[in-house]
Automatic annotation (TrEMBL):
Species: Halomarina rubra
Protein name (database record): 5'-nucleotidase SurE
Reported cofactor(s): a divalent metal cation
Binding note for cofactor: Binds 1 divalent metal cation per subunit.
Gene3D superfamilies per the UniProt record, alphabetical: Survival protein SurE-like phosphatase/nucleotidase
Annotated compartments: Cytoplasm
Positions of the Survival protein SurE-like phosphatase/nucleotidase domain: 3-186
Principal location class: cytoplasm
Gene name tied to this protein: surE
GO molecular function (one): metal ion binding
Pfam families: SurE (PF01975)
Group of enzyme by EC: hydrolase
Amino acid sequence: MHVLLTNDDGIDESGLRALYDALDALDGVDVTAVAPADDQSAVGRKLSTRVDVREHELGFAVEGTPADCVVVGVQSLLEEVDLVVSGCNRGANLGQYTLGRSGTVSAAVEAAFFEIPAIAVSMYVPTDEVSFRTYDPDPAVYGEAARATAYLVEETAADGVFGIADYLNVNAPTAGEESCEMVVTEPSTFYDMDAERDGDVVHLHDRIWERMNEQDVPDPEGTDRYAVLHGKVSVSPLTAPHTVTYHETLSGLAVEY
């Protein structure tokens, strides 16, 4: 199995290194990193028309976005890709509202349009314990995320998981003394964005992070955020194409046009 490994934090981030080492240790798995040269967090599926590429000890560094990396890796740099793994992101990607915003998840979505199975992996960082902007964890902190990723890479290809799901969105707690339970979840629908004006400046706040620190998010059991807040590894099986459904009222309007 040839795995294309990417992320949105940049190829030199410790989260990517943690996954690279975990996957490289698996029998029958070859890993090549094709990842952004620098931080591309929260760029979604932004795509370039030209990117510079340079060789890196783990594979290739791309002056572009996570979506760029998947396209360039699949179509130009690598002869064959069986699976795309994106991560491990420093910070969780939980809830429906993050799926289109996250560069980590967007790389998995890009792979799905190439009909290549993918796994997006993120690690929850409690922001009441560390300063997120300056937090630079050792690869060992990503141990639970790496263990879950290696397990899923080994097991899902043989078990037909990707016959139904296009990609998996995985969120893990930071590594502790004991291994975590893994649960299958759905993305939370709870949303709490705010914007405050201060003269000519408007500050945007994602209030969910503050509420997560206070264990105050009203997510029901079975959702990704509930699982991670309770110390479990969350795995959400998702599909990439937008769902199209029959809409009787809209169909009637079209006929009358």
